[in-house]
Amino acid sequence: MFKNDEGLTDTYNRFHDRSEASADIERLRALHVEMDQAVALAYGWPIVVNGQVVHPPSPASPSPLPAPPLPPLDLGHGFHATKQGERFTLSEPARRTVLDRLLALNHQRYEEEVKAGLHDKGAKKPKKAKPATDQRSATGGVQFGLGLALPANAERTLPTEFRLPASEGAHYTVSLVFALLSEAGGSLPLPRLRDAFVLATSPKLMQRLAPGDDAARVRAWAQRWCEAAKPVMFLDSLKAIGARHLAVSPGAQGRIFQLLDGPRPPATEDVGYDAWIALRVSATLPPSAILIPEVPTMTRQAEELVLA
Fold first, then answer.
1. Fewest 10 Å CB contacts: which of 73, 162, 237, 284?
2. Same-domain pairing of 175 and 235
3. Contact 164, 95 (CB under 8 A)
């Protein structure tokens, strides 16, 4: 960069240019490949390098929940089509495998924390839910769920790192439900959970309904959002989470959905921001504002849902 008197943008434009074959760019590509391989090995994944399988070193302290052996991963570095155009990166099959494994690892780590008692908060049976509120508090905050006040001027910063969409829409939507409930303090009445979910999976609708003071941030968020998720996946996401993590109780505005283990950090920085901005916008809307064909069926089925 110093030698060529160029910044990161110009350097990486050359990096992703198939016709660029200068020694410095070729070396940079090789370093990226080595870095990705080192990270995969650090996760304990065997990888394919030059046709040979390379196994990670044995961990000093094995996981208390050992996972079955994973097949070798061929990262497939090269020039591949992406939503941002052609890029020098992992192959699409490798990218999806990496995302699937990271999601599985996230669930495994959570199970380990549960076994270690890190999520114990007394009895698992939830207290009887108070009527849910959704109104401006006396302090100027927005009330969500069971009364958690989020300051009206609370701000989140839109993530700036490259956004990798979840390998499947269902992976994203399950994480989104967890993030919405956690952002609201652990529980939400069905109408607010549903509306926020619809907004978070409908960027165009969110832009149309966002109030003026949120228009710019919603527009920036919508340009970044890239998930394969739709509002109709709401009920399936609730079913996937199930009674193991959710309690459902009556409420003045419909059923209250509550996380048994309380709020948890979001699966990714992006899904956390998605939940925050969707709840922020939904709190400004009347109940009848979100008019899409799926909402009546979605609401009826969720009201009838019995978590086994």
1. 162
2. yes
3. yes
Closest-CA residue to 102 (of 54, 39, 181): 39
Answer for the pair 281, 215: CB distance below 8 angstroms, yes or no: no
Do 219 and 280 belong together in one domain? yes
Q: List, for residues 64-74, the tens digit of each pLDDT value.
A: 545 567 899 99
* Phi and psi torsions of 288, nearest 5°: -90, 5
Instruction: Quote the number of domains for the chain.
Output: 2
Domain co-membership, 110 together with 147: no
Phi first, then psi: what are they for 133, rounded to 5°?
A: -125, 160
Whether 291 shows a pLDDT value over 70: the answer reads no
Domain extent for 96: 8-115
pTM, two decimals, is 0.53
Only one residue has tokens 């699409």, namely: 92
Burial letters 47-81, b for 16+ CB under 10 A, else e? bbeeeeeeeeeeeeeeeeeeeeeeeebbbebeeee
| pLDDT tens figures, 94-139 | 988 888 888 777 777 777 777 777 766 554 444 444 444 443 333 3
- 98 and 161, same structural domain? no
In a domain, 181, yes or no: yes
pLDDT band (50, 70, 90) for residue 62: low
User: In the structure encoding, which two tokens stand for residue 268, read together?
Assistant: 């990714």
